[in-house]
Design the sequence.
């Protein structure tokens, strides 16, 4: 059996930036164990699989460790493959996922993703989070990740996490965030994202985390439209807008590789 596979750098305008995702178009669903093995073999933070379904597509995302409920950069990558490689030309692309219907439109500023918002709530800082980050944040909240808020971007850059400690936490992972400062001042907020439980110690650019960060910073900064930058080694930029109980994320994507899987 041969399967098409594409590798796309998402939330960037140039190759070797943003977050790489593998995208595998399928005509029908394969066994879940096989999908997981493909994702493990790819060893990227996410591999996206989709099959046609009515006027849209069913979309699933796998880390090297397990299937996840929501992934932003691999959704963007899947949309990019459909529009740029597979001839999709409708104004709106609809994916049916474990997080409900996700809509993607192509604009002159990039791909706009419409995702559910998740408002983090204040919590007491777990001991494992404090030990794992090594520096106490000024505020800790929780949604599907822990959100650790720091005063400055420099403190985010200086974090050297203990991933064995962060693995012990009950939620998906930890997102460290701060208002932009210094040379990052041309954006509203910055972040770094750690998911060692998923075998992704630090994710380069995390669309789903901005479904939590956008409501938080929109409330904190008193504005609905925000720009964000993820301070990973590769780095990535997102434009975020809070619209009621939805978050719209806009970013670009570029092709890196296309090939075939032999199974």
Sequence:
């Amino acid at each position: 059996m041969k399967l098409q596979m594409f590798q796309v750098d998402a939330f960037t305008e140039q190759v070797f930036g943003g977050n790489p995702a593998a995208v595998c178009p399928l005509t029908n669903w394969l066994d879940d164990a096989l999908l997981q093995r493909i994702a493990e073999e790819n060893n990227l933070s996410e591999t996206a699989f989709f099959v046609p379904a009515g006027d849209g597509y069913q979309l699933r995302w796998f880390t090297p460790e397990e299937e996840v409920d929501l992934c932003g950069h691999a959704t963007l990558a899947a949309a990019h493959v459909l529009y740029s490689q597979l001839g999709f030309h409708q104004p709106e692309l609809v994916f049916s996922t474990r997080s409900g219907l996700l809509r993607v439109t192509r604009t002159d500023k990039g791909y706009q993703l419409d995702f559910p918002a998740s408002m983090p709530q204040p919590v007491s800082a777990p001991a494992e989070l404090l030990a794992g980050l090594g520096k106490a944040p000024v505020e800790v909240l929780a949604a599907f990740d822990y959100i650790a808020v720091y005063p400055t971007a420099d403190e985010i850059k200086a974090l050297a996490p203990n991933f064995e400690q962060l693995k012990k936490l009950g939620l998906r992972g930890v997102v460290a965030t701060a208002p932009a400062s210094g040379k990052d001042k041309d954006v509203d907020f910055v972040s770094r994202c750690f998911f060692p439980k998923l075998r992704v110690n630090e994710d380069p650019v995390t669309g789903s985390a901005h479904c939590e960060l956008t409501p938080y910073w929109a409330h904190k900064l008193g504005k609905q439209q925000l720009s964000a930058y993820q301070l990973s080694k590769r780095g990535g930029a997102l434009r975020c807008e809070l619209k009621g109980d939805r978050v719209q994320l806009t970013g670009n994507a570029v092709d890196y590789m296309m090939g075939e899987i032999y199974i």
Q: What stands out?
A: The longest strand covers residues 253-262.
